[in-house]
Amino acid sequence: MPRIGIIGGSGVYGVFSPKKSVKVHTPYGAPSGNVEIGEINGVEVAFIPRHGKGHFIPPHRVNYRANIYALHRMGVERVIGISAVGSLKEDYRPGEIVIPDQYIDFTKKREYTFYDGPKVVHISMADPFCPKLRDIFSETIQELGYPYHDKGTYVCIEGPRFSTRAESRMFREFADIIGMTLVPEVQLAREMEMCYVTIATITDYDVWAEKPVSTEEVLRVMQENEEKVKKILQNGIPRIPEERNCPCKDALKGAEI
Fold first, then answer.
1. pTM of the model
2. Can you give the residue range of the structural domain that contains 15?
3. Domain count for the chain
């Protein structure tokens, strides 16, 4: 069973060659795609394309519960989420990498929990990302020499539209980067007592800046960032130890009412 899972886009295929594809049935419906099993630098990993192969699922329609449940059922204990984000701050520049340490949820109508009753669980999200995984990937990026930020607040919006200028000015008072896919993925992983880290690649300045964001601009910088993400995964994943000594594995202790 793979202990490491990746949820991301098609760029992962440049460093990951699936050996088998597993169709996983979940109580929450179908995941974004089959769970594909393969290796990265000798380490077995499981991969789910968040938006489906060919990118046909918009962010507000991703079945986040099914994706996390499917990885958990396959034995995954750690999840690496890869996402493209916009920048809300001048010094968080397009092409740079961010390993966020906090997030703000501005989504509106997603399925946020596995516990809809009768069992009621209130997990702590005070520190939402696995500290060990954050350290591993921050050190890896630093050694590779890529410009990056080892912390930052990610505001997650519903999408699929981009922000208005007024919204963007408001968000930048409280956050550093903005995206559409972190929530509820990160909190569902916590409910399954899985470690979770986000590797966020900045594609553009959000519309607080003078030039409005365009899909063409985002896609261009995303392609440039793909090579960086491949190197980060190749060098970072082998550093993840088999044993977990972080608080993520005990997230449900004391959380049930």
1. 0.95
2. 4-242
3. 1
pLDDT per residue as tens digits for the range 1-27: 899 999 998 778 778 888 999 999 999
213 band by pLDDT with thresholds 50, 70 and 90? low
Q: How far apart are CA 34 and CA 67, in angstroms?
A: 9
Catalytic residue among 101, 105, 176, 206: 206
Among this protein's residues, is 204 annotated catalytic? yes
Q: Is residue 94, in this structure, part of any structural domain at all?
A: yes
Q: Is residue 81 part of a domain?
A: yes
Neighbouring residues of 214: CB distance < 8 A, sequence distance ≥ 6? none
Which position among 101, 105, 176, 204 bears the catalytic label?
204
pLDDT, residue 1, reads 84
Whether residue 254 is contained in a domain is answered as: no
Question: Residue 39 domain-assigned?
Answer: yes
Phi, psi of 16 (to 5 degrees): -135, 120
- What pLDDT score does 255 carry? 94
CATH number for 214: 3.40.50.1580
Does 127 qualify as catalytic in the annotation?
no
- The Cα–Cα gap between 92 and 56 comes to 29
60 against 216, higher pLDDT: 60
Q: Which residue has the higher pLDDT, 256 or 67?
A: 67
Q: How far is CA 149 from the centre of its chain?
A: 16
